[in-house]
Amino acid sequence: MDPHKKGAMDKDFFTEYGEASRYVLQEVVGKGSYGVVGAATDTHTGEKVAIKKILDVFEHVSDATRILREIKLLRLLKHPDIVEIKHIMLPPSRREFKDIYVVFELMESDLHQVIKANDDLTPEHYQFFLYQLLRGLKFIHTANVFHRDLKPKNILANADCKLKICDFGLARVSFNDAPSAIFWTDYVATRWYRAPELCGSFFSKYTPAIDMWSIGCIFAELLNGKPLFPGKNVVHQLDLMTDLLGTPSPESIARIRNEKARRYLSSMRKKQPVPFTQKFPNVDALALRLLERLIAFDPKDRPSAEEALADPYFQGLANVDREPSTRPISKLEFEFERRKLAKDDVRELIYREILEYHPQMLKEYLRGGEQTNFMYPSGVDRFKRQFAHLEDNHGKGDGKTPLLRQHASLPRERVPAPKDETAENNDQSEGSENANKPKHSEHSLLKSASISGSKCIGVQPRKDTEEEPIPELPEEDADGLSEKVAQVVL
């Protein structure tokens, strides 16, 4: 080989792993049991990114499997309305690494913070937000993926009103030869956004309608400024649903496979549905009609994402050419879901996923796995020191926690709206630390604790006591609740 060409190849190979110097951390923006999230700059592109350090990935095989599932799905589901993994740093050792560093596109907030910070969202906001969610969900569902944990904290947001769906740790791929209900635990989705059929094994087969219900609850929260069904337990959750929607029809109750749930609903006093115009006064009639379809008690009555996008509510905004479908995900990609994995099995599968972001190393790996055992350069150790330095020194001396970022109101001019609409840009940032700072630009609004992940929280986050995260369970242990939920949100 020409020595000049060989030298160029060597340079490319080693440059690829100069990862520690490529990303420069600016601030720590989130901490939790999963690890740490930092905002950084990619010096190669100048782009702002979020880097998530996930600690002790393999401490629990169930947590590691969730991380594997999530990074694999985000690699396969490339769509403008789904958060993107830009890079995963190469670990220094194939068989001994414990932490992983995942680089995401930087998002400024999440929909939970947007709803909390903005009590004057406009009808144009509602329409544009729901359109993006349904467009992303159409793509997800045509891949035969069910998200199963859609909620405002799992919807990332930017100041230009762009939304992206994240947190696929509880998602599942449905294959035609496997009934969707038999092998999946019922304990999915945060209770407030959980479809009725998930509140007690109601129906014999789960469908994408479980996600459509969650989208309906999110839409209602946008319209009303507060959660629609903030149940304190499963029974209270069903009571709140039936208080609004009325008692289910005998036909719907008869199709419920859970005997206790069937008896409970059959013995419930007869409730009449509350008119949505009463529950949501001053809301556009077309929006309410679509909401009623989305939160129909019986899953067969809910529209698909594609059908919802064709609703008259989106007239003038919907465009089939901008609402792509995709091919179903190959069964081979999720073969690991069908067998019991040991810790080393999951480590090898995650390592294989990481190599997708390192083409040269992937070639070496595919040529012969053992060849990748040599000591190759990795930026992780140096980058780990960047994180440690920032965590140790960030905010010292000011007596304040540096982790909670401020958010502000959405700029009205960033939403598709009539041209004569007057632009507003209200900065509602709280706290004296911002008192002497210049006004935020449009692109720096919506700052919050959440960045490229709904679990990117401060050291001592305020807990919504009624909202209880529901952990994923092994199928063989569906009667017991695990106390620890894997905290990776991509």
From TrEMBL:
UniProt enzyme class: transferase
Biased composition, class Basic and acidic residues, residue ranges: 410-422
Binding site for ATP: 53
One GO molecular-function entry: ATP binding
UniProt cross-references to InterPro entries, sorted A to Z: Kinase-like_dom_sf, MAP_kinase_CS, MAPK, Prot_kinase_dom, Protein_kinase_ATP_BS
EC number: 2.7.11.24
Residue numbers spanned by region Disordered: 409-490
Composition-biased stretches (Polar residues): 425-435
Pfam families the UniProt entry points to: Pkinase (PF00069)
Classification via SUPFAM superfamilies: Protein kinase-like (PK-like) (SSF56112)
Catalytic reaction equation(s): L-threonyl-[protein] + ATP = O-phospho-L-threonyl-[protein] + ADP + H(+); L-seryl-[protein] + ATP = O-phospho-L-seryl-[protein] + ADP + H(+)
Biased composition (Acidic residues): 466-480
Keyword entries, A-Z: ATP-binding, Kinase, Nucleotide-binding, Phosphoprotein, Serine/threonine-protein kinase, Transferase
Protein family: Belongs to the protein kinase superfamily. CMGC Ser/Thr protein kinase family. MAP kinase subfamily.
Protein name per its UniProtKB record: mitogen-activated protein kinase
